[in-house]
Design brief:
Structural class: alpha+beta
Strand content: 25-35%
Radius of gyration: 12 Å
CATH class: Alpha Beta
Strand order of the largest sheet: 1-2-3-4-5
Shape: globular
Helix content: 10-25%
Distance between the termini: 23 Å
Mean pLDDT: 85
Number of helices: 2
Low-confidence stretches: none
Largest sheet: 5 strands, mixed
CATH architecture: 3-Layer(aba) Sandwich
CATH topology: Aminopeptidase
Number of strands: 5
Order of helices and strands: EEEEHEH
Length: 89
């Protein structure tokens, strides 16, 4: 299930937000600023465990040209994601 092809879905970019959608729902989104600080990231529970969060973060890194900086997680799931990505930069 890790072979999620982001190119098969609608990816939109507005000021500081990447949103990934299909015809029925929002799959995920990430909110960030110009220094690469991730303010919020969400992946729909139906699409989790497919590497979508990492792909969204890669978009942020490519867009900003900066290493990702994570704000302090506000949920246990956010803390778990942060621990899994500690060596990612």
């Amino acid at each position: 299930m890790r072979d999620f092809n982001i190119n098969k879905y609608e990816l939109t970019e507005t000021e500081g937000i990447f949103t990934l959608k299909n015809i029925n729902t929002t799959i995920g989104f990430v909110r960030f600023n110009n220094v690469g600080e991730v303010e919020y990231i969400f992946v729909n529970p139906l699409f989790r465990k497919r590497g979508i969060a990492k792909k969204l973060l890669r978009l942020v890194k490519n867009k900003t040209g900066k290493n990702i900086i994570f704000q302090k997680p506000i949920s246990p799931l956010g803390t778990k994601l942060l621990k899994s990505l500690e060596k990612w930069n």
